[in-house]
Amino acid sequence: MTASISDFFDVPNGMPLPIPDADLRLWRSMGCDDNAGVLAALISDIRWRQEQVTLWGRTYPQPRLVAFYGDGGCSYRYSGVTLTALPWSHDLRLLKDKVESLCDASFNSVLLNYYRDQRDSMGLHADDEPELGSNPVIASVSFGEARRFVLKHRYRDDIDRIRLELPSGSVLLMQGETQVNWKHGVPKQSKSCGPRVNLTFRTIL
Question: What is the CATH classification number for the domain harbouring 137?
Answer without folding.
Answer: 2.60.120.590
